[in-house]
Design a protein that fits this description.
- The protein is mainly alpha-helical.
- The chain has a domain at about 40-170.
- Helices cover about 55% and strands about 5% of the residues.
- The chain has helices at about 5-15, 30-35, 45-60, 70-75, 95-115, 125-135, 145-165, 165-170; strands at about 20, 25-30.
- A two-stranded antiparallel sheet has the order 1-2.
- Residues about 1-15 have low confidence and may be disordered.
């Protein structure tokens, strides 16, 4: 990798930018920018993205606008060993899209059974009650991966996209400090 490409990559990584394909060309965008520009999803179906955005917003305020669906979709499109999803450190085996599809379908089935509406159509109180029941493994109509695993995985994704960047740290009022600061400039 030449010096210019490396600098672009490092700058993009510090901002949370990922390579999205727009009009057949790979461009560095944050998931938020990809969502705002309407970059097409490569793996997730639109109804899955809608559910993911709704539950992501319940789990971490700001996850929807920060592009949780585009973040997860992008990560599901790369080879599993390159994915930045925390599901990689779980006992779930790739392809990870199978887990996400089953989890999001489980959320929709349980929401329909409880409220006769899609999860995204629930009000704020219903969202919070649903997530609380999911967290505690108390959704009696649940059909999908383990409820606690779904809760933790989606919660981590929501937190990563909402607060795992320099911008996210700034919104929290926390100084961004990398785990291992380089001794000298790249």
């Amino acid at each position: 990798m030449d010096d210019i490409a490396r600098r672009v990559f490092v700058k993009g990584a510090s901002l949370g930018a990922l390579a999205f394909t727009v009009g057949g060309v790979d461009v560095l965008l944050t998931p938020k920018q990809a969502r705002a520009q309407g970059v097409p999803l490569r793996v997730l179906r639109s109804e899955e993205a809608q559910t993911l955005e709704a539950i992501g917003e319940t789990l971490a305020v700001g996850a929807r606008i920060q592009g949780i669906a585009h973040f997860v979709d992008h990560q599901l499109a790369v080879p599993p060993e390159q994915a930045l999803l925390t599901i990689r450190v779980s006992e779930t085996r790739p392809p990870y899209v199978n887990f996400y599809r089953a989890a999001l379908a489980g959320i929709e089935r349980a929401s329909q059974a409880l409220h006769r509406r899609a999860y995204a159509d629930l009000n704020e109180r219903e969202h919070h009650d649903f997530v609380d029941a999911l967290r505690q493994n108390k959704l009696e109509t649940w059909q999908g991966p383990g409820q606690a695993n779904v809760y933790l995985t989606l919660r981590n994704d929501a937190i990563d996209v909402a607060y795992g960047t320099m911008e996210g740290f700034a919104r929290l009022g926390v100084p961004y400090m990398p785990h291992i600061a380089p001794e000298r400039s790249w």
